[in-house]
Design a protein that fits this description.
Elements lengths: L8 E8 L3 H11 L7 E8 L1 E8 L2 H4 L2 H6 L4 E7 L14 E5 L2 E11 L2 H10 L9 H11 L5 H11 L2 E8 L4 E5 L8 E5 L2 E5 L2 H6 L3 E5 L4 E5 L4 E6 L7 E2 L1 H6 L5 E2 L2 E2 H15 L6 E4 L5 H11 L2 E2 L3 E3 L12 H11 E3 L1 H4 L3 E6 L8 H10 L4 E6 L21 H4 L2 H8 L3 E4 L2 H7 L7 E2 L1 H4 L18
Parallel strand pairs: 14-24, 17-18, 17-21, 21-22, 22-23
Antiparallel strand pairs: 1-4, 1-10, 2-3, 2-4, 5-6, 6-7, 7-8, 8-12, 9-10, 9-11, 12-13, 15-16, 19-20
The structure holds iron/sulfur cluster (SF4).
The site of iron/sulfur cluster has 11 residues, from helix 17.
Length: about 450
């Protein structure tokens, strides 16, 4: 049902004196929004133990699993598949042997030359159990030449192309690795008697830790109970952090590029009000990701902000919706308009993005039926015209609404009274500086590295 971009995955890693997996378990809950297809934990206590399951964290992991995952080092993962099918074999963390010891890995991102590297690794004698690009990274790291981690990581980074933020569980601590483009986020925090690595800083907050900094593009940081240290840093000429993390993926209480995401989104909303002003009675946001932008629009325009749509947070993400009537119900299950608030009013509706355009017409219709007099749709991202190759499952170019229609056509299609998108300049004005460090390829088609435009999510399936 959802027309919103699918988050990619979330990773955590903990080194502490005791009970690392329990902390990793709680930290995972903070990044549940980054993936809901499967979840898992791994811990090290003389040997690596892994527990994975399908669905939300609460479905995949039970209290008894945490009891069995003893040890001082742990990593965790929440998955939405961007490469490979939704099946338990592709759940993470995954492990393999490195000489006489074992390592486990959690991955967020998408490696675009995984097929080629997998073929090479097979020639080296590697065997694969999954159809994900994450296992290709794991095997490449495990079998890379060199005795020390820095040599292996150097080789791995010289071979992989694409996005990978990793937590790697070893017998002596956890390594956090961010690809040389720095596409997906990864940050470091201090906790009692140890350190944490996580996709987003809200995971650090949730377990009472203190945010230290982001892992830099091309950096590998080793954490133990007592210290963190950079064990590798690749000199990077080009950084391409995903700008969409600021618009939609990251939680508003996370910090990206040293700025609270909530404040970044408020700025986007304010910029949207400057670029697309309109007379109206109220501003509402499509909950939850557009709420901050709606507040920003309201503050800049002086038009009152109110809640106008209530979101049911307990509805799962995947529906089978065979016909129009069921799709209508699908939207209604998720969103309920506050009729008494919006009846007879002209409203500005702020949303974060339109991907295929399968949900927006229903939201407009829902508000219209609730009595809204005029509906002015404001989108706090530029039109999405290009697919993502770095860990976000948007759609193919053919399916993207803005790739095939003009703004006027889209306005008619969603049946709004007016429609305004944030410009790319306005977006870059709103996100934390420096401006040239972002990937914005889904809006501009300018990919930071060459890509094959028709990517196949199942290219690594047998
Ligand atoms: S193409 Fe878009 S979603 Fe993908 S990494 Fe770049 S900015 Fe992010």
């Amino acid at each position: 049902m959802s027309d919103y971009p699918r988050e990619e995955c979330g990773v955590v890693g903990i080194s502490t004196n005791v009970d690392a997996s329990r902390l990793a378990f709680f930290a995972l809950y903070a990044i549940q929004h980054r993936g809901q297809e499967s979840a898992g934990l791994a811990s090290y206590n003389d040997k690596i133990q892994i527990k994975t399951g399908m669905g939300l964290i609460s479905q995949a992991l039970q209290e008894s699993d945490i009891e069995n995952l003893q040890g001082s080092f742990s990593i965790g993962h929440t998955r939405y598949s961007t490469t490979g099918s939704t099946k338990i074999e592709n759940a993470q963390p995954i492990s393999c042997m490195v000489e006489n010891t074992e390592i486990a890995l959690s991955h967020n991102g998408n490696v675009i030359n995984a097929k080629q590297i997998k073929d090479e690794l097979k020639e080296w004698g590697c065997e694969f159990k999954t159809s994900s690009d994450s296992e290709v990274i794991l095997q490449l790291l495990a079998n890379a030449p060199g005795k020390e981690w820095k040599e292996k990581i150097n080789y791995m980074m010289s071979r992989l192309q694409g996005a990978y933020s990793l937590t790697v569980l070893t017998d002596s601590g956890v390594i956090g690795i961010r690809d040389p483009l720095g596409v997906r986020p990864l940050c470091l925090g201090k906790i009692d008697n140890g350190y944490i690595l996580a996709s987003e800083s809200c995971a650090i907050d949730h377990i009472g830790g203190e945010y230290i900094r982001e892992i830099e593009a091309g950096e590998a940081v080793f954490i133990t109970e007592n210290e963190y240290k950079t064990i590798y840093k690749k000199e990077t000429k080009k950084i391409a952090a995903c700008v969409f993390e600021n618009i939609y993926f990251a939680r508003p209480d996370s910090i990206l590029n040293d700025q609270l995401v909530y404040l970044t989104r408020k700025k986007m909303g304010a910029q949207l009000a400057i670029e697309h002003p309109v007379d109206a009675d109220l501003v509402i946001g499509v909950p939850d990701s557009a709420t901050a932008a709606a507040v920003g629009y309201s503050e800049e325009s002086g038009i009152t902000f109110t809640e106008g749509l209530m979101k049911n947070r307990y509805v799962g993400r995947t529906f089978i919706l065979p016909d129009q009537r069921m799709r209508d119900i699908g939207v209604r299950i998720k969103l309920n308009p506050l009729k008494e608030i919006i009846y007879g009013k002209s409203i500005i509706v702020v949303d974060d993005s339109i991907v295929r355009g399968t949900t927006t017409p229903f939201v407009v219709d829902l508000l219209r039926k609730a009595g809204a007099k005029k509906i002015h749709l404001r989108i706090c991202s530029p039109p999405i015209k290009w697919p993502c190759h770095f860990g976000v499952d948007f759609a193919t170019k053919n399916e993207l609404l803005a790739a095939n229609k003009s703004i006027e056509d889209i306005q008619n299609f969603v049946k709004a009274d007016s429609l305004g998108y944030l410009s790319i300049e306005g977006l870059m004005e709103s996100v934390p500086k420096p401006k040239n460090k972002y990937c914005d390829a889904c809006f501009t088609g300018k990919y930071p590295i060459p890509v094959q435009l028709e990517m196949n999510k199942f290219a690594l399936e047998n």
